[in-house]
Amino acid sequence: MDSIAKYDMSVLGMLLALMYAARQHYCLRGVTYRRTVIPLSVERAGKAGFYLLSLAFADAGLRRFGEALWAAGLCVPPASSRMAVRLRLALLHVPMATWALLGPLSVAGSTRDDRGFSLACTRSRLWFFISQWLFNGRTKIFLSEEWRNVSEEDRAKWAGRHYVIGMHPHGLLPIGAILNGLTWAGGGLTGVTTSGAKLSEPANAGDGLHQRWFPRMELRAAVASGACGLTPGFYE
């Protein structure tokens, strides 16, 4: 086995070892599945190792795929190994490293609190596109019918409080919850219940998301699991 093959196998072995350790000790899962919160420095170190090994593994895969094509007589560009290395650096390593350093590995990019939350993002056209594409534009958030039995005094009391809402996102259902709860694609909470009954809204209603029913709501979002910030797309 030549040195390059040994290098590729060692990268694969270290990546599998890291993934096994992460699965056993949840060192990439932030504050979930653990009795104690993993230190942020340890979480970042684990993520950095994951990115480095993943890049090395992807690089080896692309290199071997290109070599296999040439060995099969498919002379696809680039024509030289040096140019292939430069292309992988420009199109894979540099973009991924830049994203990781400015995103999940940075102090400002932590997913443990709301520092990355963007009010502008709640109005992004992307959410309306997803709403239209997945749900035919029928994403709408309503009050439960129980609010009809709540006195005006209690409504005012409960509407003026702050709340922490937990959600365990898996599958298609949480996409609707995110669209309705965290974006304007659901229109925001108003005084309309699921049956269509209209309740009087607070006189001090605000202009923010859901503030027509919860005037004091200052919407923020954070994720408990470090795994949410592991890859591009999921992190954003």
Mean of pLDDT: 83
Structural class estimated from helices and strands? mainly alpha
Main β sheet profile: none
Question: Roughly what fraction of the amino acids lie in strands?
Answer: under 5%
Terminal Cα span: 41 Å
Roughly how many Å is the radius of gyration?
A: 24 Å
Q: What's the number of helices? A: 6
Shape, please?
Answer: elongated
Taken in chain order, the helices and strands follow as HHHHHH
Low-confidence stretches: none
Quantity of strands, as a count: 0
The amount of helix comes to: 40-55%
How do the helices and strands line up, and which of them pair or pack?
Elements: H1 3-25, H2 40-71, H3 81-102, H4 125-135, H5 152-159, H6 173-182
Helix pairs in contact: 1-2, 2-3
What does this structure look like?
The protein has 236 residues and is an all-alpha fold. The protein has six helices and no strands. The protein has helices at residues 3-25, 40-71, 81-102, 125-135, 152-159, 173-182. Helix 2 packs antiparallel against helix 3 (81-102). The longest helix has 32 residues, at 40-71. The chain starts with a helix and ends in a 54-residue tail after the last helix. The model has no long low-confidence stretch (mean pLDDT 83).
Question: Key features?
Answer:
single chain; 236 residues; mainly alpha; 6 helices
Brief rundown of the structure:
The protein has 236 residues and is mainly alpha-helical. The chain has six helices and no strands.
